[in-house]
Design goal:
By secondary structure, the protein is of the alpha/beta class. The protein contains 14 helices and 19 strands. Helices cover 31% and strands 24% of the residues. Strands 14-15-16-17-19 form a 5-stranded mixed β-barrel.
Length: 496
Amino acid sequence: MSTITENDIKQSVADAIQYISYYHPEDFVKGMVEAYEKEEGEAAKNAIGQILINSKMCAMGHRPLCQDTGSVNVFIKVGLNANLELTKELEDIINEGVALGYKDPTNTLRYSIVEDPAGKRTNTKNNTPAVIHMSVNNSDTIDITVAAKGGGSENKSKFAVLNPSDSVYDWVMENARNMGAGWCPPGIIGIGIGGNPEKSMLLAKESLMGQVDIHELKERGAKNALEELRLKLYEDINKIGTGAQGLGGLTTVLDVKILDYPCHAASLPVAMIPNCAATRHIHFELKGDGPAVFKKPDLDLWPDIELPMDTIKRVNIEDLTKENLSQFKSGDTLLLSGKILTARDAAHKRIVEYKNAGKALPNGVDLKDRFIYYVGPVDPVGKEAVGPAGPTTSTRMDKFTQDMMEIGIMGMIGKAERKQPTIDLIKKYKSTYLIATGGAAYLISQSIKEAKIVAFEDMGMEAIYEFEIKDMPVTVAVDTNGESIHTTGPAKFRTI
């Protein structure tokens, strides 16, 4: 019998992590191409186009699809009849593979995992540990699925224990309406029904590892209640009108996946987890003939897309003042050039601490009249100024907006909607909120010509950077009058 070695497992996991960092699953690309071709919303079509351009660039350049290179989820089935040659715990071997994959110098990935989560939240510096789900079967192989899940989509996960007479459809639709754009649609919704609380969550996550096949299901027709529910939810979630990046459009979900499990007669556990526009997962099997080998997709899978330039305004940040920001209206597409600063949650928290203490920021950093970009970039390789640098979810910064406005920032750049109190602040201070496309991180990074850390270097990717940008594509999400594209855009396409 062939032997499966530690190196086979470790190297396969590392190679899988690298592979999914720059290759979308082929079925996902095909779904996105179809969504792009049928989209009627101009802003949403532009966003899907950017995601597809980014996807092809990453496939060619072997750089991450998204700056959030994810937390690693591993589903592993170990055959009881497999001939294993291991000197360590299987979990340790998998985590060694994760670390090896994330620290590859040819394609560095961002470390996002922190230990002591309720305390100091210290980065582990290699993106371990992974979340590992192990089971056994009677085979002589090891079956593995590796996935990388971004924080924006994970944060939109929902769970409830319904009454047996309650409607799963109603519960999912209510959550879909309230989910906003922080999970970076269009993507996939995974649903787990039954079992118990932890089982339903696991089912929802595991369902996301399946292929995008909703159109095949539509053609042949539903054969059971779950398939009927899949089709109804797919049709009706898209009727909500959220659209790509929450800009309003025909496609919010590419597919709805459901797995179920028997449960107690007194309860109905149900979970819902979205997968974002940086959907990343791969399945492989180890049989004792060496590490897994992953096939490169054909580049003809991706269409050649050119974004419309006739409606895009070029803007030099150095020419902007609070007085002339009013020229930009919600929904306008801009190409920004100039210098911007970055800051995420941890940096905002520390900035406010400095403000409250009456202290100046380190190195003479001045936030007044500056644009703040919510981003935690990937480290650069080769001649890059910075690695992939797409936006993070802006609502996490809402709690700091009052302080930032009092400091005197000119505007903010991120992704997804802002809460109404933040929109009110933007209007009050005659500021503006711009969005970059989540899921287009490598494309965005091409517009960053210089990057340097200017404060809080100890925070790693959460440090404050200064970026010199040239023609960075953004959309005006909230203008100085407080009009939000995330309200007006979906309203145009909502039919339910």
